[in-house]
Amino acid sequence: MDFEKVDGFDSLEMSYISDFSGGFISKNYDIFREIELTALNRFILEKSVFGTPIFKLGNGGKRVLISSGVHGNELPPQIANLKLMNEFVNLDIQNTLFFIPFVAPKATMLNSRFFNSIDLNRSSHIKNSLSNVIIETIEELEIDFVGDFHSTAYNSNPGCESVFSSKSPTPESYLIAEYISRDVNCKLLSTDFAGQPYKGAVEDVCNLKGIPAITCEVLSPFSSVGVGSVKRSYIQMKSFLSYLGI
Ligand SMILES: [Zn+2]
């Protein structure tokens, strides 16, 4: 996978994960009205029309991925991811951060949980699904840690601010989740073994491959931005990085 330097930003590079998942984020007014139109955000929205962009900042150290938008209608983490990128883009980072703010821009455009009728967090074990392409990218880029950020509504599952992990076969995931849970005061949800009770979550498939990964959830109604939810998601992202010493 080749990355290209992004003009106007010293250490920012980008590439595409897929060219079949693009969408006009600006058509989803519920998210668009919450996005600050910085030069960087405009650039990201423009690139998202043509597929799923991945961004890289810094070199050396730990290789860490922050992803959001696996579920296109979970808006707060996608906005928080942009906020984090805007904060880090001008900093000298001693590590290598990868960002996927919109896993499936088309699903975000449509404000839908599903991408082409597929739940991407139940299909990352299926060859050639968009989330499986993301898993392959994670392996190709030799990413060491994965944080996947979601939101959940009151009457859904898990329905509370939380962090998911599993204890086996990659126990570090549990340690990361325990840290975040204590640090930001959200519920710790863990299973003994990754991929249970359902298969195909990005977090689980990473864990089954030995890559520590967690899923974070903040509370917000689906397809809209709950009060304070962007900030809470941003705080979860910062806590994830803080565990890693970043
Ligand atoms: Zn989700």
Provide an overview of this structure.
By secondary structure, the protein is an alpha/beta fold. The chain has a single domain, classed as Aminopeptidase. 32% of the residues lie in helices and 22% in strands. It has eight helices and nine strands. It has helices at 29-32, 39-48, 75-88, 105-109, 130-140, 172-184, 202-208, 229-243; strands at 4-5, 12-18, 52-57, 63-68, 96-100, 145-152, 162-168, 187-193, 213-219. It has a nine-stranded mixed β-sheet, with helices on both faces. Helix 3 (75-88) links the parallel strand 4 (63-68) and strand 5. Helix 3 (75-88) packs across helix 8 and helix 6 packs across helix 8. It is globular and about 45 Å long. The model has no long low-confidence stretch (mean pLDDT 97). Residues 70-71, 74, 121, 150 line the site of zinc ion.
Shape: globular
- Low-pLDDT runs: none
Strand order, main sheet: write it out.
Answer: 1-2-3-5-4-6-9-7-8
CATH class: Alpha Beta
**Total domains, how many?**
1
CATH homologous superfamily (4th level) name: Zn peptidases
- Please give the count of helices: 8
Biggest pleated-sheet summary: 9 strands, mixed
Q: SSE order, as H and E?
A: EEHHEEHEHHEEHEHEH
Tally of extended strands? 9
The structural class is alpha/beta
What is the name of the CATH topology?
Aminopeptidase
Task: Summarize the helices and strands and which ones pair or pack.
Layout: E1 4-5, E2 12-18, H1 29-32, H2 39-48, E3 52-57, E4 63-68, H3 75-88, E5 96-100, H4 105-109, H5 130-140, E6 145-152, E7 162-168, H6 172-184, E8 187-193, H7 202-208, E9 213-219, H8 229-243
The structure holds zinc ion.
Zinc ion (ZN) binds near residues 74 and 150.
